[in-house]
Amino acid sequence: MKAWAIVEVAQPLQEIDLPTPEPVGQQVLLEVTHAGVCHSDIHVWEGEWDLGSRGKMRLLDRGVVLPLAMGHETVGRVVKWGPDAEGQGLEVGQIRIVFPWVGCGTCAKCKAEEDNMCLQGKALGIFQNGGYATHILVPEPRHLVDPGDIDPALAATYACSGITVFSAINKVMPMAPEEPIVLVGAGGLGLQAIAVLKAMGHKRIVSVDVSDEKLVAAREAGASDTLNASGEDAAKRLVALCGGPVEAIIDLVNGSQTARMCFDALTKGGKLIQVGLFGGELTVPLPLMAMRALTVRGSYVGSPKELRELVKIAQGGRLPGIPITREPMQNADSALQRLRAGKVTGRIVLTAEAA
């Protein structure tokens, strides 16, 4: 198979030939048709995450092996499967979304279909080859979801940005439709979050970014209010826009500056859900955490159950699509660099020649 892979950290992706995997056990081999280019891929390509005062988390020290085909937003066509997957509804040619946040497969979390919480995570596109390739090997049939009538390019984004925002939104619900929910970041995740909230019937959706262009896209996607957080007093301006301190904020950037703004804008009993991996840290006054009954909670992607639930919501066009730019798979490196430069609205989805 061909892969567009990291051969050396922070260097251009290279087109390489790898052996096409032969599925064993419950494994399923798919021919990739669509692969989304996610902001997390930039961190993987750079080889590290900024952990603030704890320094850098270097992926090569955590078991990542090069060369690596990234890509964790994948749709593909079923090709073959291992003998233990017989009788589980598989047919050659089926189009399926790939759930990428796989774990060890044997622990209590994996057995409960909370694979993303497995302590031995083996995510596709990070610890195993992912969708930037002609083929992808999936551990079990339960990691495949039928997209139904959803455009496969859009469906691919649900495997990461879709379930990431869906899982984060679930952590602040239920809320009255007219109560503001603040979304920090109007990139691919932010637009996806707006779409999910609209599909869930929420009315007051406040989008925050430092790019006027992205805020225009947020308005077009259905945000009721927007705020450019550049400059001074962003937290005060956010509180004023929302008509008072805020009950629910989802930080899709999650850097030191955005985290501080979000924390300072929370009302008593407010929840800050931290999703993004921009880097840095947040120092909080501990007495205020108790006196104001605040919640600061991380949210890491989502589970297979949430992916199936999200796809069910999206059937029949009930979940508005986000802007998608299709690019041939061989443009993987240039697509990644455009995203890194902040020049992408919505999502780039790489497509195979036959897709």
What global shape is seen? globular
CATH class of the largest domain: Alpha Beta
The topology string of helices and strands comes to EEEHEEEEHEEHEHEHEHEHEHEHEHE
The CATH superfamily of the largest domain appears as: Medium-chain alcohol dehydrogenases, catalytic domain
Structure description:
Strands 3, 6, 7, 8, 9, 16 and 17 form a 7-stranded mixed beta sheet that branches. The protein is α/β, with parallel strands linked by helices and 355 residues long. It contains 10 helices and 17 strands. It has helices at residues 39-46, 108-111, 152-170, 188-199, 212-221, 234-242, 256-265, 286-291, 304-314, 332-340, and strands at residues 2-5, 14-17, 28-37, 48-50, 56-58, 74-81, 95-98, 135-138, 144-145, 181-184, 205-209, 225-228, 246-251, 266-274, 295-298, 324-328, 347-351.
Q: Short summary of the structure?
A:
The chain is an alpha/beta fold. 28% of the residues lie in helices and 24% in strands.
Summary tags:
355 residues; alpha/beta; Quinone Oxidoreductase, Chain A, domain 1; Rossmann fold; 2 domains; 7-stranded mixed sheet; 6-stranded parallel sheet; 10 helices
Question: Secondary-structure blueprint of this entry?
Answer:
Layout: E1 2-5, E2 14-17, E3 28-37, H1 39-46, E4 48-50, E5 56-58, E6 74-81, E7 95-98, H2 108-111, E8 135-138, E9 144-145, H3 152-170, E10 181-184, H4 188-199, E11 205-209, H5 212-221, E12 225-228, H6 234-242, E13 246-251, H7 256-265, E14 266-274, H8 286-291, E15 295-298, H9 304-314, E16 324-328, H10 332-340, E17 347-351
Parallel strand pairs: 10-11, 10-13, 11-12, 13-14, 14-15, 16-17
Antiparallel strand pairs: 1-2, 3-6, 3-8, 3-17, 4-5, 6-7, 7-9
